[in-house]
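lol ok so funny story. i was supposed to be doing the assay writeup but got distracted and ended up predicting the structure for this chain instead. priorities right. anyway since i did it might as well share w the group, maybe its usefull for someone
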Amino acid sequence: QVQLVESGGGLVQPGGSLRLSCAASGRIFSIYDMGWYRQTPGKERELVAVISSGGSIAYADAVKGRFTISRDNAKNTVYLQMTSLKPEDTAVYHCNARIRPSRDSYTVTTDWGKGTLVTVSS
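and the output, tada:
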């Protein structure tokens, strides 16, 4: 069983910054892509940023130049540094990871965290 636990959300004023963290724990042999998604009420979950195990990165157009994704493979942790925050960035941010739980199997699972709320408001 794998757990993804996010932290770092909160209330911030427009133009401010926050850093989100997501730590994976449990039965893990290796982790492939790790990413951040966000969701607001009545809307579908959308990709914010993703980083591969090799360090390749992709961002949603809405956050390019403002958000930075990174990962610490030794800690099984992915980060999202958010700057120049806007009210439209308000959402629940979910961590996502593709994980191979066992050396003995090539099965890969897609796991989600429960989310952390980011509110951008004056």
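Residues 37 and 46 are 5 Å apart (CA to CA). The longest strand covers residues 30-39.
back to the writeup now i swear
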